[in-house]
Specification:
This is DUF2202 domain-containing protein. The chain has about 220 residues and is mainly α. It has one domain: Ferritin, core subunit, four-helix bundle (Ferritin, Up-down Bundle), CATH 1.20.1260. About 55% of the residues lie in helices and about 0% in strands.
């Protein structure tokens, strides 16, 4: 299981963003891979986040958003840029928590969804670069966050999930439930097609992950 998690930390940060049918190339995030490591050279969404655990196609295969590219850049307010940074922290929190649970519990769902969260953070980092927003997750080790609230949430849920597999699944469900609420709120009033596209993709993924943890 640990070898599976180690592989999730070496995904892509260059190429094209697979989110629909509008074509815009995105640059490599040199030296700024998904969790503080070097960026690899590949496509941003090479697969691995299918319709969902126990929902027909599992996690592998062609990505559910297809082979299109990211939409055009729009404009973000200061508050929306702050939200984008907070979404990045949420994606890292989810990955780090699920990776930790994969080491503690014999349940493949955690390793699979941790892999998906790696792709999610790569997508958000592309947006951070586009809009000139500092990446709060850059060079942060697993389980470490610049935001005190994110750190407290991680520590609390990690402790909760140590108790049993059912407790870990409940912690995962809580993360996805909170992410759904945050992404739904973040979509309100957006005037940036690329950010809306990524948030919508993340929202759909969180809904699938919530189903995985609760089923």
């Amino acid at each position: 299981m640990r070898s599976i998690i180690r592989r999730t930390a070496t995904v892509v940060a260059a190429g094209a963003l697979g989110l629909g049918g509008l074509a815009v190339a995105v640059p490599a995030l040199a030296g700024n891979g998904p969790f503080g490591g070097p960026a690899a050279s590949s496509t941003i969404f090479p697969g691995g986040d299918g319709p969902g655990y126990g929902m027909g196609n599992g996690y592998g295969g062609t990505h559910c958003m297809g082979a299109g590219l990211i939409a055009e850049q729009g404009a973000l307010t200061g508050a929306q840029k702050a939200t984008l940074a907070s979404i990045a922290q949420r994606e890292k929190l989810a990955h780090d928590l699920y990776a930790a649970f994969a080491d503690r519990h014999d349940a493949a769902v955690f390793a699979h969804i941790a892999r998906a969260e790696t792709h999610h953070l790569t997508a958000v980092r592309t947006l951070l670069q586009r809009y000139g927003v500092a990446d709060p997750t850059a060079q942060r080790p697993a389980g470490s966050f610049t935001d005190s609230a994110a750190q407290a949430t991680y520590d609390r849920l990690l402790k909760q999930g140590d108790g049993s597999l059912s407790a870990a699944l409940a912690a995962g469900a809580q993360i996805e439930h909170d992410d759904i609420a945050a992404l739904s709120a973040a979509l309100d009033g957006l005037d940036a097609a690329d950010v809306e596209q990524v948030y919508s993709w993340l929202l759909a993924a969180s809904q699938r992950h919530l189903t995985a943890f609760t089923s």
